[in-house]
Design goal:
The chain is α/β, with parallel strands linked by helices. The protein is built from 7 helices and 8 strands; from the N terminus they run αβββαβαβαβαβαβα.
Length: 214
């Protein structure tokens, strides 16, 4: 957490110490659970390597400023989210508008992102939750409350990610924009291990404020 916090602060110092650029947009990328307990080059028995650096590279190629780190150990999702909120608040204090900040999470990272949405309680922030909702979450994690501009992406063949319309219905914060995308790659949960255009492109559009996905 300290590493990514320093990256964010240094990035802001560079941007605003030299010249103001109101077009700068930021992505906080939160990876899946497998990478928490395995090295960057370790292979999942079914899905292969989590292509973490390649995913970040795709976001950066689009002109987005990426703030991310490889988590280690089985971190507590809520506690980790609080650290992300601290970084977001730091960006906002430098003059970055909340709508220029997007929190993207895959699998467990998506659950962390949901806690960020809940605890930040800022309807102007953007979020992309990827493969991170199951129907029993309503009962098992009742404290989650969607808030912000929400895009959810899930894969038809993935048992660990389905439509989260029910969560939206139970949320009482303002959700200005909400959209869901169902993929059909046939890759199961493994689709998020790779920077597939099927989820990378809509994520980039959302981060750029294209809520109609045009």
């Amino acid at each position: 957490m300290k590493i990514s916090f320093l990256i964010g602060i240094l990035l802001c110092s560079t941007l605003f110490g030299c010249k103001e650029n109101n077009d700068e947009r930021f992505i906080f990328f939160l990876h899946n659970r497998f990478l928490e307990e395995h090295g960057l080059n370790e292979l999942h028995s079914e899905f292969g390597r989590t292509e973490y650096n390649e995913i970040i590279a795709e976001f950066e190629k689009s002109g987005l400023n990426v703030i991310s780190e490889k988590r280690n150990g089985n971190v507590n999702a809520r506690d980790y989210a609080i650290g992300i909120i601290t970084q977001i608040d730091s960006l906002i204090k430098t003059g970055i508008k909340p709508q220029k900040i997007t929190v993207v999470g895959t699998s467990k990272g998506g659950y962390i992102a949901q806690y960020v949405s809940t605890l930040a309680n800022n309807p102007n922030l953007n979020f992309v939750f990827i493969a991170s909702f199951r129907n029993n979450d309503i009962q098992n994690i009742p404290e989650i409350n969607y808030c912000g501009n929400i895009l959810t992406i899930y894969e038809k063949s993935d048992p660990f990610g389905v439509s989260s319309l029910e969560r939206k219905k139970t949320s009482n914060c303002e959700v200005k924009c909400f959209k869901e995308i169902e993929l059909n790659t046939g890759m199961g949960h493994g689709f998020l291990f790779k920077p597939l255009k099927e989820w990378i492109k809509p994520t980039i559009k959302w981060a750029n404020g294209n809520y109609n996905m045009e």
